[in-house]
Every structure is written in structure tokens, then in C-alpha cells.
Amino acid sequence: MTPPAARITVVGLGPGSAALLTGATRAVLESAATVILRTRHHPTVAELRPLSDRWSDCDDLYQGHAAFADVYVAAVARVFAAAEAGPVVYAVPGHPLVAERSVTLLLESAHDHGHSVQVLPALSFVDVAASALGRDFAHVQLCDALELRIDAQRPALVSQLFDRDATTALKLRLLDIYPSDHRVTVLSKLGTGEQTVREVPLAELDHRPFGFLDSLFVPAIAPLQDLRRFDGIAHVIERLHAPDGCPWDREQTHASLRPHLLEESYEALEAIDSGDAARLAEELGDVLLQVLMHAAVGDREGTFSFGDVTEHIARKLIRRHPHVFGEATASTSDEVYRNWEALKQAEKPRDSILEGVPKTLPGLAASQAIQGRARRIGFDWPDIEGPLDKLVEEVREFARTTNSAEREDEFGDILFVVSNIGQRLGIDAEQALRLANEKFRARFGIMERMAAARGTDLRDMTSDERDALWDAAKAELATR
To answer: What domains, with CATH codes, occur in the chain?
Structure first.
């Protein structure tokens, strides 16, 4: 077998001082013919002069690229190009495999370029931070300020606070999770003679300049403080359903919770109609609570867990969006819809296209869902004139009915055709009727107030007087 064309050795320059270099790394740097620095802006590089004056660097790449990701790609390409001529040492700040994206990219693509890569151990900013804070870092998570993923219930060490803008952006993201007075620790110039450690409230994090050698330690918060993210509410539900939790919550079943799910869903719809964003946020929380309660019941009964719920919907979304998560293409919402339906049919073959429309849907909504599915296979009028003519026909048939059974049957036909017309025009029949109900409620309320102001009751008025009040109420609403 042919050996790799060249070897690339990756070394770490440590957290901030040449005194913290490992012996192996120092030996490699002193003997290497070609050394490429990811950046020359590191205290160790200055301390190793005049040796380091012979090394090249990638600092020019930062001027030519807007994003760090592009800089790292270009730096890796430069290393591979140099490796074509012989062995190369690529030197990066800290430890090569701790918060160093360029090394990760290099390792991922080394095989494709025919090169082998050796990574030497090094001291990282994490090691020095642990000593500076006097903490056991066994449970501390490492986070990147530019791609923040953080568990607030665990302590975190955050890197990439390279300037005030990045630090301000980080602060705003953290304030979405932590209280503004949460005490955090700024670690500056770790591993150098200028090292400082100072604690500040989170809200004041960006009240000073930051540099490449700065990091941030964020202590954990208690579960009951972590209320702006899912982890917090999950803890609350878990606590309620614990053996020593709430007796009422522990007695609930899927059946007992069923009416609450329906009620909260309708309240969320009402909040949408109101246009009140704060109210909608509250009602969506109530809907989410119902999902969590059912998951807790499933977990308690041993039938399923919340993980089953989230995994099911996540996998479904991935499967049905191959144009996002796979190789398929879809440039319009119509294409997405057709692909979705085809994938859905492949996943769950049905004997009838009408299968899957819940029987618990409100009548008008069910009617539109059923007719919409029939339309997909072409079973419908070719244009709007068809259902309009059919509506006239059904109204005439209704007028000819002679008993209650016939009236109910024909009235149902009228509503069925009306729902078809609404769907054709993009009108949600349930929503339209709700709006009509609210409009009537508002007008009727004005009529009642007007009548009371005149010292009379609507029941005592003539039809003409009530009609006049109705017109006045309509006029008043029109001016609002």
C-alpha cells in the first residue's frame, strides 16, 4: 500500500504563555522546516521569537473573508497546499481539539487529500480556567459564543468572546435564559502574567472591551429558575407527577385530560382571532401543558414517554421535508404540499382517501377536510358556478320539506355545499362562522346598551324599533 503523500502535524500553542507548551510541541516547533500559524496574534508566538519569525501565518485570510467559517476553510486549504511539498506543522492557539474548528475541518478532509494527520496533546484554556476558578470541571459544558448551545442547569465555559460585538450578542442570548443579575465570571488573558478573573452581573457583561484570550464562566441556575426554556417546564411537570408530587396531577388519565385539550385548543384559536400576542403566548403555553400532561401520564403508565412524542414528530418532519433534509427539490409551496401528501400516503397506505379525517372535528371543518380530499382526485365541480347552483337547488329542496327529519337532512346538505364554496375561495368555514358569531355578539351588545340608555328593553320594542337599533349598532361598529 502506498503511504500517505505527506504528513501534517497539528500542535497547540497553549492558552497564553510559552511556559505552558508541552515538551513534545516545543521540540516539533524547533525542528520543523515548515510551520503555519492559524494566527500570529497569540502571546506564545511573540515569546518564541526569533524562531517564530520564520513561520508563516493565516492572518491575511481574516481580511479577505466575512465569516470565520470561510477563514477556517481557507486556512485548511493553505495547509494542504503546503503539505504537497513536504511535512507541515500547523500551530493553533490552545489545544487543537478544544474549540478549534479549523483542525476539525482539516481532520474531516485529510483522507480526501491523501494526507495523514497527527495531533499532539496540548494545554487548553479549559485547563487554566479550572485552576483559575478552583473548580472540578467534570460537569462543566464547553460552549461557543457564536453557536450557543447551552444547558442552563449545568455550569458552562464559553469561548469566542473576541470583541465587544460578539460579547453583546452573547449577553442578549443569555438574557433570554438567565436573570439579568445572574453572576458570571469573566476570565481574561488566561495563562499569561496579565490573567484576571472577575465576577459581574450578566447585564453588565459587555461593559468592557474583550479580546481573543477571554472566556466566560456561567454558573448553573436551579431548575425552577430555568423557566424560559423547555427544560424548566419539563422539570415542573416531572416534579408534579413525582411520587411526592401533586395528588390531582397524579390521578389524571388521558380520558380525564381529554376535555382540557379541546378547551385549551379553542382558547388558543380565540387568542389568534383577537390579535393579542401576549394572550396568544399564554394560551399556547396552556396547549403545550396539555401535551406535557399526556406525556407524563404515558410515562407514569409505562406506555410511552415524552421522548417518544418528540422523536415521532421530528422524524416525521425530516422524512416529509426531503427538500430540506435530503436531496429532493421543491421550490414552491404547492410542490411541498404534493410531496408531503405522496410521502404521507407511502407511509400510511389507506383504503380510502377519506381515512384520517378525525371524527371529532367540528362539522364544518370536517366537511371541508372531506371535500378537500375528494377534490384531490378530481371529484368536484369544475368551477365555482357548480356549487353555487347546487346551493340554490338545496335551498329550494329545504323549502319544500314537510317534517323535521327532512328539514335536518336538507339543512345538512346546505351546510355541506356552503363549506365547499368556502374552501374553494380559501375561506375557513369554522373561522368564518366564528367571526360572524362575534360580529353578531358585538352588534347585539350595542343594541342592548342603546335600549338600556333609553330606559327600555329589547323585548318590549317593535320589530321596526329593533331593526333601527340594529342599523345603528352596525353603523357604530363601522366607525371603530
So the answer is: 6-123 (3.40.1010.10), 126-225 (3.30.950.10), 230-304 (1.10.287.1080), 350-427 (1.10.287.1080), 431-478 (no CATH)
